Amino acid sequence: MKSLISSFLVCLFLCSTANAQEKKSVITLISKTKLEANTFVNTDPFGYQYFIRNNILFKQKDHELFQYKNLSLGKIKKVDIQNPLKIVLFYEGFNTVVLLDNQLNETQVISFSKNQATIMASAVGLASQNRLWTFNSLTMQLGFYDYLKLTYTPLAQPFQQPIRDYDSNFNAFYWIDTSQGFYSCDVYGKISSLGKVPAYENIQFNTGKGVFYQIDNQLYYYDVKESKSNLIEIDEKSFESFRFKDQFLIIFTNSEISTYKFSLP
Q1: CA dihedral defined by 190, 187, 98, 150, rounded to 10 degrees?
Q2: Is the pLDDT higher at 3 or at 61?
Q3: % of the chain residues with pLDDT over 70
Q4: SS3 string of the chain?
């Protein structure tokens, strides 16, 4: 009887230990595709790839290829493709945004320098209701720019520190400041602190849940809720950038993109 009880306790301990172990990420290589580019932007829901080569934006799928070039505005700082029918290009050096249609035709050019309100934009992203998330570095405030009315409305209290990296969707703006603080702001101007992220070289946001980040040619996922980083094991020993969307992780190496099916732990 004593032996039976001991065996039961050992089994119970082993089961509880197994349950307490970390859940591992599941990653599977799906495909590798040649791509010559300086920057890989991302793919849209229709399977088109967006990338930048020689400061020209390209959109391609199979034998279709579109491009947009406006070298007079300097370097493309950010490309927002969350709505493929209204693509946002941000040229920070010229304080200008260009809106494109789904064939990369120019539909509107917005020069913040010509706006009645003094705006020096350092972050721009597409929001809802004909608006752009716009961070004005002169006032350190996030606001909405209505691109139909051509008006700017401050949204939140001034930030305490400059933005290092940012991302956005229709309903929220996410950023990391120069002290590694991670924050979000909703459409009503409510700012929430999401903690601090580890040191990184490149980063991509997973809304407010966490971030993917690269350091020393290793890729990690940092879970905000757990305050824990998990190493993501990929085939590439070195890479330029990465993107995560709809459970697909894309690794870009300047001449090739590798697509992985990836599930978070």
Answers
A1: -100
A2: 61
A3: 90
A4: CHHHHHHHHHHHHHHHHHHHCCCCCEEEEEEEEECCCCEEEEECCCCCEEEEECCEEEEEECCEEEEECCHHHCCCCEEECCCCCCEEEEEHHHCEEEEECCCCCEEEEEEHHHCCCCCCEEEEEECCCCEEEEEECCCCEEEEEECCCCEEEECCCCCCCCEEEEEECCCEEEEEECCCEEEEEECCCCEEEEEECCCCCEEEEECECEEEEEECCEEEEEECCCCEEEEECCCCCCCCEEEEECCEEEEECCCEEEEEEEECC
The answer to whether 207 and 198 have CB atoms below 8 angstroms apart is no
Average pLDDT over residues 99-110: 98
Residues 6+ away with beta carbon under 8 Å from 21: none
pLDDT digits (tens, 9 = 90+) for 113-169: 987 778 999 999 999 999 999 999 999 999 999 999 999 999 999 999 999 999 999
Nearest C-alpha neighbor of 97 from the set 88, 87, 86, 84: 88
Burial of 174 (0-12, 13-18, 19+ CB in 10 A): buried
Query: 167 and 158 in contact (C-beta within 8 Å)?
Result: no
Distance CA 43, CA 40 (A): 9
How many Å is the maximal CA-CA distance in the chain?
Answer: 87
Angstrom distance (rounded) from CA 121 to CA 117: 12
* 8 A C-beta contact, residue 51 and residue 37: yes
pLDDT at position 12 is 39
